[in-house]
Specification:
The protein is mainly β. The protein is 0% helix and 56% strand.
Length: 131
């Protein structure tokens, strides 16, 4: 079973940047999606970015409207690591950030679709932004 380990969180001032990492213990899959979610205190979990892989050269990134332009998701396939680059942090970004993996993905042309919500989760890394 794949294990996901996040790192890179911390306490930063508003306007700063962070790069979160999610190391996977193994990913011998051809089609899958890895994503970043966050959960702020007292709020529901929110998906912020998804990175779909469909074969050796097909990728698709998707972002929540609330983070477009400030968050960038990327993947290092050689090292089985997912990244989330966050710039211009603000206090509303304070949350526990978790990465997740799902295999239930299909592609229709160049568009990926999730077939379930059966995510495998990491433990998370905490981000705290002060004003």
């Amino acid at each position: 079973q794949v294990q996901l380990v996040e790192s890179g969180g911390g306490s930063v001032q508003a306007g700063g940047s962070l790069r979160l990492s999610c190391a996977s213990s193994g990913r011998p899959y051809n089609t899958y999606c890895m994503a970043w979610f966050r959960q702020a205190p007292g709020k529901e979990r929110e998906g912020v970015a998804e990175y779909f892989t469909g074969g050796s050269s097909t990728y698709y990134a998707n972002y929540a409207d609330s983070v477009k332009g400030r968050f960038t998701i990327s993947q290092d396939n050689a090292n089985n690591t997912l990244f989330l680059q966050i710039k211009n942090l603000n206090p509303e970004d304070t949350a526990m950030y978790c990465c997740a993996l799902i295999l239930d993905v299909t592609w229709v042309g160049s568009s990926p679709y999730l077939l379930s919500r059966a995510w495998t989760w990491g433990q998370g890394t905490e981000v705290s932004v002060s004003s």
